[in-house]
TrEMBL record:
Comp. bias regions, Low complexity: 51-63
Gene3D superfamilies in UniProt: Periplasmic binding protein-like II
Upper lineage: Bacteria, Bacillati, Bacillota, Bacilli, Bacillales
Signal sequence region: 1-25
Biased composition (Polar residues): 33-50
Official protein name in the record: Extracellular solute-binding protein
PROSITE patterns according to UniProt: PROKAR_LIPOPROTEIN (PS51257)
Length: 563
């Protein structure tokens, strides 16, 4: 779950960066708007976002679901930044007028959101809507049994966008009790992808293909031995041709992103966490397999050979990105989405204005597993949920669901991501092109400065849901990422698990506390990685995991989820 949060936060960081440079990308459209403020009137925004027919489809001609004005309080990460007091924001105004609501922001941060919401729930001070990742926590069970959160209506037809999403397998998994196909919904899941297969680009390795040519290796490595040899060459053979031994092989956004290399041994660890895999006729945690130990030994071999960044264990977010983009490292473990490629391209071309990112970088295919197959990461496309306070009456629940339905719609999505049609972007033949705008100083206009409410776009979904088609990212990068995705879908098997296992509830569930990244670092930095890893994992298996495995398998058998 923690790794999904990292991906989601990375997606939000991508969204921020995208909007920061929107005018630079939009310049290719040939449009120009040099108004100093660049802010249209609220009426312009409202006219461009007229209520859609579907929004009021459930109401009879004599009923207007938006007739009564309502205040809706929402707790969301950094929503205070999205709704600064006294700021004239036409997009916020348009959303509020369309739904006839006033949104009352209740700020939370990445550091305090869980604690704050637990305190509010215990003291009966919850806002109308709140965002948290609680689906597999004991909090949810107690909130439901104690009547803290509101059950969603069984009939979602008045909310067509929500109805479509709740019909998908990922959303269906959020029924409660977990794993019960007849259970009820108590939350609105927040997807990072609308298809679990899209996780194929959530993990991977990007490499300097020009460096590969410089060290005489033009074929992508297929085995771990070949990969280690390539990383050593990046360190020892002066790949940047500056006459100095000052380069690194592989660096990683954080230690957990090294997990992609486990695709060559234990694919169940590819996501930077341990999933349930088949072993000895039952479901077992991936970290406990002999294949996992072999993967740890291989990463230790990479480290001992000098092919892995010596600072991999302590590197901070963003530092590895800078190392790779600035030409200090030859390979980078992170995701291979267009957003990450765009971040690298921007940094690289700022430092090398006479060069093109696409000429120097490529996405590596995964390392072939020892069983002869390629594997790709596969997991739920969702991280975190929104809950409605049980104290909300039916009319308020209806309005909240209509708000979510609108933001999930194409019209709402475009408004909160690209601005106002005809002012900030144009749409022709289904394609969106941004309109070039400048601020008072003649610099590219930052849309999030113009419309802070855009920062709340992840109220409903993370930006990964549209990242493959987003016009804020150059087509060349979208094509690069899409080509990798298609290769994965055609050549790589998904991790051999059953996603339903993530949602099985059993008594000892909260005791599943393995820490992949911490444990991997300990093993790789030790003198004997195999001995260290086995000591750690055997400690888990001889402790709480003995009961965890028994209880999960008993529940899985009862539900017909057989290994």
């Amino acid at each position: 779950m923690a790794k999904r949060m990292k991906v989601a936060k990375s997606s939000f960081a991508w969204l921020l960066a995208s909007l920061m440079i929107v005018a630079l990308i939009a310049g290719c459209s040939g449009k120009n708007n040099n108004e100093a403020s660049g802010s249209p009137s609220a009426s312009q925004a409202e006219n461009s976002t007229k209520p859609s027919e579907s929004a009021s489809a459930s109401a009879s001609p004599s009923e207007d679901p938006f007739a009564e004005h309502m205040d809706i309080s929402i707790a969301l990460w950094s929503i205070g930044d999205a709704m600064p007091e006294g700021f004239n924001d036409p997009i916020r105004d348009a959303v509020e007028k369309k739904l006839n609501v006033t949104i009352k922001p209740v700020n939370t941060t990445w550091d305090d959101y869980t604690q704050k919401i637990q305190v509010w729930a215990a003291s009966d001070q919850l806002p109308d809507v709140f965002a948290i990742d609680a689906i597999t926590s004991p909090n949810l069970t107690s909130w439901i049994t104690q009547g803290v959160v509101h059950e969603l209506p069984a009939d979602l037809s008045p909310y067509p966008e929500l109805a479509k999403l709740f019909a998908t397998p990922d959303f269906q998994s959020y029924r409660f009790p977990l794993g019960d196909t007849n259970g009820k919904f108590y939350s609105i899941p927040r997807p990072n992808f609308r298809d679990a297969n899209m996780n194929a680009n959530s993990h991977g390795i990007i490499v300097r293909k020009d460096w590969m040519a410089n060290v005489g290796i033009t074929k992508a490595p297929e085995t771990m031995d070949e990969f280690i040899a390539l990383m050593k060459a990046f360190v020892e053979k002066d790949p940047d041709k500056n006459g100095k031994k000052d380069t690194i092989g592989l660096t990683a956004y954080s230690p957990s992103w090294l997990a992609d290399l486990f695709g060559a041994y234990e694919p169940g660890l590819m996501g930077g966490k341990s999933v349930w895999v088949r072993g000895d006729g039952k479901w077992v945690p991936a970290f406990s397999t002999a294949r996992a130990t072999e993967g740890v030994k291989a990463i230790k071999a990479l480290y001992d050979a000098g092919g892995l960044d010596k600072d991999f264990a302590t590197i901070k977010s963003g530092e590895a990105t800078d190392k790779f983009a600035s030409g200090l490292a030859g390979a980078y473990a992170h995701d291979t989405t267009p957003g990450t490629l765009r971040t690298l391209k921007t940094k690289y071309e700022e430092l090398n204005p006479d060069k093109k990112f696409e000429d120097a970088f490529m996405i590596l295919p995964p390392i072939k597993n020892v069983d002869g197959n390629f594997y790709r990461f596969y997991d739920s496309g969702i991280w975190s949920e929104s809950y409605i306070n049980a104290k909300a009456d039916d009319k308020k629940v209806d309005r909240i669901l209509r708000l979510f339905d609108y933001i999930f719609s194409e019209e709402g999505f475009n408004l909160l991501h690209f601005g106002i049609e005809g002012v900030d972007y144009e749409k022709k033949d289904g394609q969106i092109s941004m309109i070039d705008q400048k601020d008072a100083d003649g610099k590219p206009l930052v849309l999030m400065n113009k419309y802070p409410f855009m920062k709340a776009s992840y109220l409903t979904e993370w930006s990964g849901t549209s990242i493959a088609t987003n016009p804020l990212i150059p087509q060349t990068l979208r094509d690069m990422s899409e080509a990798n995705f298609q290769w994965m879908m055609q050549n790589a098997k998904p991790v051999d698990t059953d996603l339903r296992l993530n949602f099985i509830d059993y008594p000892s569930r909260t005791k599943a506390v393995e820490q992949f990244d911490v444990d991997l670092v300990k093993a790789v930095l030790s003198k004997n990685a195999e001995e260290t890893w086995n000591k750690i994992t055997q400690g888990y298996m001889n402790g709480d995991y003995k009961t965890i495995v028994e209880e999960l398998n008993a529940k899985a058998k009862e539900m017909g989820i057989n290994p």
